[in-house]
């Protein structure tokens, strides 16, 4: 097994840049951190090109790593710290080819979809993706201004659910137009006079649910294009709900 001992190694420098959007686009790769995510990616038939592991992590997962068909490189703790996005990295990473854009056809329209409008917090994104996975959704669409699905913090927060769903990116207005062309309702989430309580909507198989920015909510131009806007009644004295909590309530209510 090849071993890299220096954080100044050229390959390490290149892999470290995968923590940035520019680095990912230049290399057509992204980096996963932790054995849980690396093994999830391998089991989901993602194109994991290289596994980087400290000796400690190799000893913990030797059988699984030996069964991996790609390149395996041993790294030192110093290299692990250079590649990690946490203060105490586990010491195992996967270098993965960026997936090609998922094919999306009219049949996909008749599933349940979560649309993210300028959601910034990686923890919120991860919670919503995991909840969509748990609720049986078909996919999640990352709108413009939403943190990248390949951001290391977002990847870590999604905890592998990204491999169980279709994840797409693009202009939400375009996607909303496609749903409406196929008579699939698009529900916004906003407390305004035109909104209705979420529990007045019947469960269904085909719909899209839009969740807006943590501070400012959904953009007006997107609110104007939805089929109907929903709100969750607050019975106590709290001013609002966390966006991920609100998304979970709405997703499990709406999904048939």
UniProtKB/TrEMBL annotation:
It comes from the Bacteria. Residues 31-102 form the RNA 2-O ribose methyltransferase substrate binding domain. InterPro entries: Alpha/beta_knot_MTases (IPR029028), MRM3-like_sub_bind (IPR053888), Ribosomal_eL30-like_sf (IPR029064), rRNA_Methyltransferase (IPR051259), SpoU_MeTrfase (IPR001537), SpoU_subst-bd (IPR013123), tRNA_m1G_MTases_N (IPR029026). Keywords: Methyltransferase, Transferase. GO terms for biological process: methylation; RNA processing. One of its GO terms (molecular function) is RNA methyltransferase activity. GO terms for cellular component: cytoplasm. Pfam families: MRM3-like_sub_bind, SpoU_methylase. Belongs to the class IV-like SAM-binding methyltransferase superfamily. RNA methyltransferase TrmH family. This is RNA methyltransferase. It comes from Apilactobacillus kunkeei.
